[in-house]
Amino acid sequence: METTQLSNGVTIPMLGFGTYLIDSQDVPAAIQTAFDAGYRHLDCAHIYRNEPAVGAAIKASGIARDDLFVTSKVWNADQGYDKTLAAYDQTLKDLQLDYLDLYLIHWPNEKNFDLTLDTWRALETLYQQKKVRAIGVSNFSQDQLKQVFEMATVKPMVNQIERHPYKVQADLGKFDTDNGIVNEGYSPIGHGHLILEDPVITQLAQKYGKTPAQIVLRWQIDTGFVVFPKSSKPARVKENFEISGFHLTADEIQTINGLDRDEHLNYD
């Protein structure tokens, strides 16, 4: 699987497995299926309410910790310096890990951004204490990132944002890249049929002998985005991983970019 480097030199797999909305009882089979398919990057979060099950599945897999890249996120209710440190400790306990590879602020606090800045200070502390290999944010705008830049001693290394062919995020994606921030895209295939049935996508799928989902994931990675599709269906989990061996042309990438509707499929 292709990888990219964060600004501090840490290597991150560009294709991961998302754990959002997977019921705890379904986690063991889903995680093992992902590992069997070849995934070694897991995207987790406290608010997903399944981190204890994910931790147990990691332990049961027998895969060496150094072979995994594990991300988690601090939730809104846990923002603030001390609360963030406590939330991190709880996540680490739930996942049964000694450290995280990446820790993110899940959302900016819209009513009290100073609280979010305190949260960032806590992430810097965790990074300086080597309890996490990299730190970043999620769902931050350019203006919010600029406020972090003004006070940060360590700049965010990742910005995880909604991204799919109907929400291309060209301006924010370029801003991130220009500032040494790796883009991650959640909802990478846009929640299913609307995008996967688009004629542009289906025609490219026919050309390359791939599924529409594979085309969209290839577009994501070819444009520099780290992604982590989620599925509890074993065949789909394997299909999403099998996107090596081909690349879209520059013209095809531009054609997919042209599908942009600036359409959020999640909370804005």
UniProtKB/TrEMBL annotation:
Binding-site residues, substrate: 106
Domain NADP-dependent oxidoreductase: 16-260
Record-linked Gene3D superfamilies: NADP-dependent oxidoreductase domain (3.20.20.100)
Taxonomic lineage: Bacteria, Bacillati, Bacillota, Bacilli, Lactobacillales
One of the record's GO molecular function terms: oxidoreductase activity, acting on the CH-OH group of donors, NAD or NADP as acceptor
Keyword NADP: yes
Any matching Pfam family: Aldo_ket_red
Keyword set, alphabetical order: NADP, Oxidoreductase
InterPro entries: AKR, Aldo/ket_reductase_CS, NAD(P)_OxRdtase_dom_sf, NADP_OxRdtase_dom
CDD domains in alphabetical order: AKR_AKR1-5-like (cd19071)
Active site: 48
Site (Lowers pKa of active site Tyr): 73
Family statement: Belongs to the aldo/keto reductase family.
Protein name per UniProt: Glyoxal reductase
